[in-house]
Amino acid sequence: IPWVLDVAAGMGIPCGMLWVQSCAVFSAYYHYYHALADFPDAARPELTVTLPGVPALRPYEVPSFLLPGNPYPSLTVSILGQFENLHKARWVFVNTFEELERDAIAAVSELSPVIPVGPLVEPPPSKEGEDVHSDLWKAADCIGWLDAQEPRSVVYASVGSVVVLRREEMVEMAEGLKASGRPFLWVVREVSREMLPEGFEEETKGKGMVVDWSPQDRVLAHPSTACFLTHCGWNSTLECLTSGVPVIAFPQWGDQVTDAKFLVEVYEVGVHLRPQPPLPAREEGPSFTRGDVERCIEELTEGQRAMAMRANATRWREAAKVATAEGGSSDRSILAFLEELWLQQPYLPSVVEDNSA
Predict the structure, then answer these.
(1) CATH number of the domain at 127-319, please?
(2) For residue 310, what is the enclosing H or E element?
(3) DSSP assignment of 260-295, as one string?
(4) Keywords assigned by UniProt (predicted)?
(5) CA distance 257 to 317
(6) Alpha-carbon dihedral angle through residues 221, 223, 227, 233, given to the nearest 10 degrees
(7) Is residue 230 within 8 Å of residue 240, measured between CB atoms?
(8) What fold characterizes domain 3-118+326-356?
(9) What was the pLDDT predicted at 135?
(10) What is the DSSP secondary structure assignment for residue 98, as one 8-state letter?
């Protein structure tokens, strides 16, 4: 709701905005809106995007709403609308942390007053605080099942609440999970359940669990979870990093494709489910195979590379803890903001007095 900045500025109230995606993605939209960098267009669809402090982005790694032929132009307009009056924001709070995006933050700071305050991820609830969520969502079923599995053995698969897989993709995902031989917890929305292969749940009973919702923070924090097949939304990206869980990257649109690049190539905690660069989009048929699913699970759970990615994931988990702990980078950023706000107190009483007059 970018108009809030206009209202605040009109009343003389210092105002900030919260950016809930990565700083790298913020940079992409900022540079696009202000025409500060070249982006793929109809004449140059294969153009690589170069942004300060951000690794070169190939066309399929650029936020998809900025690409020619984007099928969701209204979303592009909505997102870019946030940059129309961004100059009125005294602060731009970004859900990231210094150690995670140091170069991007430094570069964008020269253009906009960004303040990294993340990761804004709620820690898994303590056992004493689980009752309400467990009763409401039956989360205890998932956690109880995980408790019975071996450490670092379970493949957790969830592609978010918006993405709907094609029937062919549901089949390939199901067969790939089954063929991996590993226990799995798969979140399948009720509307997609009828697309599961006939007899799949019965065949995998005891080995796998299919649910329509899961307490994701607790699943990722559980010692039985080995890897996370994710759509790479920024919230899920931060959740896997703060939990120290390697990922199978399966992005669909928007910022997810950029997040996936960082997870695999920069943070080095995952692998791509689909071939890179992706094959041309098709109206029918799956965008991946059961063999891709099985291959990715093996790469994340067996061998030296799997150990390296697990070590990297653990390192990012510790870095996130340090950032939000007392004296950490995000903690210092928040304290600096509060101090600045306190010094601006003289502005506030006049606003209150004017409103009450």
Answers:
(1) 3.40.50.2000
(2) helix 303-324
(3) HHIIIIIS--EEESS-SSPPPP-SSS-SS-HHHHHH
(4) Glycosyltransferase, Transferase
(5) 22
(6) 0
(7) yes
(8) Rossmann fold (3.40.50)
(9) 40
(10) T
